[in-house]
Amino acid sequence: MADIFDVYLAEAIISGILLGGVLALLALGLNLIFGVIDVTWICYAELIMLGMYALYYFYSVYGLPMWVAAPACILVVAVLGLLLHYIVIAPLLDAPPINQLLATGGVLFFLQSFATVAFGIDFRNLGIRLPVLALGEMHFSYARLLAFGAALAGMVVVYLFMTRTYIGTAIRAISQDRQIMALMGVDTRRLYLVTSAIGGALAGLAACLLVLQYDVHPFVGLSFGPITFLICVLGGLGNFIGGFVAAFLFAQIISLGGLYSDLEWGYVLAFAFFIVMMFIRPAGLLARRS
Predict the structure, then answer these.
(1) Where are the beta strands (DSSP E) in the chain?
(2) What is the largest CA-CA distance in the chain?
């Protein structure tokens, strides 16, 4: 009995690690946008939802091979990120934060309603059935393994871009001091557009990974949007490392909670953990104490 329990525990821990990689990717895009532009895209998960629809139509309806459909999906959502910034965010850069939140919240409901009218409420999927990897008595879906590997690769690419390129260095600098960079003649609005495109591309990559595990429908963003926002808050909005740590903490709580009870209780425990931590570390896990 103890051996069986140990197998289940090990499987839950590994599953939590796999889930943590995807959650970390989701948090990275949102943290990047907040850290640079200082605006929280409440509608971030809805961009992912549109990306999932884009991949579905590219692959299942128009018959494009996956190696073409996936980059096309990422490009489409990157363009949506640019449009969101240009049409909604840019005019509100100097507005109070509550106005920015209300505006992106309005975009959230607009995109949900648009998807409902344009695509209907039917659940759709790619029809791809990936095999299951068996390690002894443990079983892991190749979809989750692929999502974890692609999420890590995406995060490494973003890290290299931010640390090894001129534009990436400028983005990191402006996230640390916007006023000084503007006085030095840096075109901050151009960097904001680049950041929005990168954030959109990360949302597109997340869409490509999530569509392998979730059916597509207009409200699929509700499955991971709230928890992504909570991860960013727990890690400290704009704090990349904090978001990474918070993502894996949340994932382990969800996975282990699902081991001892239903998976829904794992989410309940994760939300309870968030509430407790907001009393202990209201500024985020890795925030410095004053």
Answers:
(1) 132-135, 138-141
(2) 67
Radius of gyration of the chain (CA): 19
CATH of the domain at 241: 1.10.3470
**8-state DSSP, 121:** S
* Ordered mean pLDDT values, 10 residues apiece, the chain (290 residues): 64 86 88 84 92 95 92 96 92 85 91 94 85 75 84 87 84 70 68 90 92 90 88 85 89 83 80 90 68
140 pairs with which residues across the strands? 133
Q: Is residue 202 part of a domain?
A: yes
Q: Helices (H) and strands (E) in the chain — how many of each?
A: 11, 2
Residue 288 is classified by DSSP as P
Name the residue type at position 57: Y
- pLDDT score at 180: 65
Q: Which residues of 186-215 are buried (b: 16+ CB within 10 A; e: fewer)?
A: eebeebbbbbbbbbbbbbbbbbbbbbbebe
> Does 1 reside within a domain?
no
Residue 5: its pLDDT value, please? 54
Of 123, 141, 138, 112, nearest to 209 by C-alpha is: 141
Q: Rounded to two decimals, what is the model's pTM?
A: 0.89
Cβ proximity of 246 and 290 under 8 Å: no
Task: For tokens 């939140």, name the residue.
Answer: 101
Domain extent, residue 231, equals 13-126+143-280
User: How far is the C-alpha of 177 from the C-alpha of 187, rounded, in Å?
Assistant: 13
Q: How far is CA 226 from CA 71, 81, 271, in A?
A: 26, 19, 10
